[in-house]
Amino acid sequence: MPTGVAIRDVREQLFDAADRILLRDGPSGLTSRAVTTEAGVAKGVLHKHFADFDAFLADFVLDRVHRMAPQALALREAAGRGTVAGNVTEALVGVFGSVAVAIVALITFRDELRARLRETWPAGVPVLTEAASMLGDYLARERDLGRVGAAAEPQFLAAMLIGSAHLLFADRTGPPPTRADVERMVTNVLP
């Protein structure tokens, strides 16, 4: 890109490039040069908008976590409709069918990124803890409606579902699990 040309939504352009690289090449392929090349911008553009590459990555991860808000709202509004297993399955496929699994690997891969995220996200892995919170809230609503057992503990169920789904989706070398695979896991976890 020529110098002096205004770039619209540069952060989003860089974040979208990071998504594509993570999905294609994994965390080891995610470098500042790879991001700027993929985004079609000069390398200096990234450093103009972020203090360093780990600051970029921290903002990228948090942006992707905040993108889960519409999915959380949709799941919350699904309480009482459809089946609980079907709603949970759709939520898990939505979370893990996105860049979430690659973000978990990225956070695990980069010590400095984990340290930066701890400044604003004190516990857990941001994408997974947000997904667990989303599922826990939904399951609590379903329990209140009598569609999940009264003795169920939604936050524990949510953690089991997130952990189990992560194990299903974590293998980047084979085909992703089918919706039926995810639903079978969900029906085995839910009481």
Report on the architecture of this protein.
The protein is mainly alpha-helical and 191 residues long. The protein folds into two domains: 1-49, Homeodomain-like (Arc Repressor Mutant, subunit A, Orthogonal Bundle), CATH 1.10.10.60; 52-189, Tetracycline Repressor, domain 2 (Orthogonal Bundle). Helices cover 70% and strands 0% of the residues. It has eleven helices and no strands. It has helices at 10-25, 32-39, 43-49, 53-66, 69-78, 84-96, 100-109, 111-120, 126-144, 154-169, 179-189. The model is unreliable at 1-6 (pLDDT under 50). The chain crosses the membrane at residues 91-109. This is TetR family transcriptional regulator. Keywords: DNA-binding, Membrane, Transcription, Transcription regulation, Transmembrane, Transmembrane helix.
Largest β-sheet summary: none
From the coordinates shown, what is the CATH architecture of the largest domain?
Orthogonal Bundle
Structural class: mainly alpha
- Envelope shape: elongated
Query: Do you know the CATH topology of the largest domain?
Result: Tetracycline Repressor, domain 2
What's the alpha carbon Rg, rounded to whole Å?
18 Å
How many individual β-strands? 0
Q: What's the SSE pattern?
A: HHHHHHHHHHH
